[in-house]
Amino acid sequence: MDSTEALHETAGAGAAEAHASDHSHPRYLLVWLWLALLTAAEVAVVGFTALPKSWIVIALLVMAVWKALLVALYFMHLRFEPLRVAVVAASPLPLAVLLVMVVLQEYS
Amino acid sequence: MEAHAMPYYGGRAPEKGLAVYTQKVGMWVFLCSEVMFFTGLIGSYIILRFGASETWPQPGEILNIPVTAINTFILICSSVTMVKAFAASEMGDKRGTRLYTLATAVIGAAFLGVQIYEYSELLGHGFGPWSGLYGSTFYTMTGFHGFHVFSGVVCMTWATVKAFRGGYDNGNYQGLEVLGLYWHFVDLVWIILFTIVYLI
């Protein structure tokens, strides 16, 4: 079982009979645990002053993106939506990058 | 292990176009506009911060990181209860739907409570929106996010009442899924804000 599969479980326990055949649900508590651990790691990294500031910033940004992806993919179910929906969801991201880059360029 | 073979259609026949029901498409389009809204705020913050002539305070120098980290954890917990509410509703678990919608509303309100406490502490120490670029950008970003959480809590309260009245029973869970998308988005934005505003 790879790490992606580990985030899933098959729906079907308890009262799930009616919809168990439709699809499975991610292991939400496992995603929650990852989010909690990453949050704790972020706070720990800030206090780790022995590292250069730039390394700390990169580590923090990587963990923030990691957490955001976990929320988007598993809680917002983007991983299980048709590709078209994921494209719609991702459509503002290039525009967002463009907005910041253009204004930064103007400023500098 | 079974993979996700079916997308989340929300119990309805998929409509043409994106092959998801209209309300969900509408929420995604709305969230796209919200991405641009918060990008404007975050982009302004980055530009103002790196162009500021004043010295920017170090993480934890003014803001209380431990309290906010706990608040971040609280919001993450509310995302879990939200998605569990949707899952319970989808699986026909009425008790779970009611329990988790109520929990989400309560935990969301707790997040706001901690934010109000944080604001009162900061204001008590003389750090307000008028406290230079740092103060104005901090209150603008966290304030707008707080307003989004407040709106979400209002909607969740309404959803909780609806859940207790059986409004999400019998496969009628589309509203809960759409509201959940908004709620998770607000959580996602906070994850970014927490890093940029508090930790960097």
At a glance:
The complex is a heterodimer of chains A (108) and B (200). Chain A is mainly alpha-helical and 108 residues long.
Draw up the topology in text.
The complex is a heterodimer of chains A (108) and B (200).
Chain A: H1 3-6, E1 8-9, H2 17-20, E2 25-26, H3 28-46, H4 53-75, H5 83-90, H6 92-107
Antiparallel strand pairs in A: 1-2
Chain B: H1 22-51, H2 65-90, H3 94-124, H4 132-164, H5 174-199
Helix pairs in contact in B: 1-4, 1-5, 2-3, 2-5, 3-4, 4-5
Describe what you observe in this structure.
- The complex is a heterodimer of chains A (108) and B (200).
- In chain A, α3 (28-46) packs antiparallel against α4.
- The longest helix of chain A has 23 residues, at 53-75.
- Chain A has helices at residues 3-6, 17-20, 28-46, 53-75, 83-90, 92-107, and strands at 8-9, 25-26.
- Chain A folds into 2 domains: 3-76; 79-108, no CATH class.
- Chain A is built from 6 helices and 2 strands.
- Chain B has one domain (22-199): Cytochrome c oxidase, subunit III, four-helix bundle (Four Helix Bundle (Hemerythrin (Met), subunit A), Up-down Bundle).
- Chain B has 5 helices and no strands.
- Chain B starts with 21 loop residues before the first helix and ends with a helix.
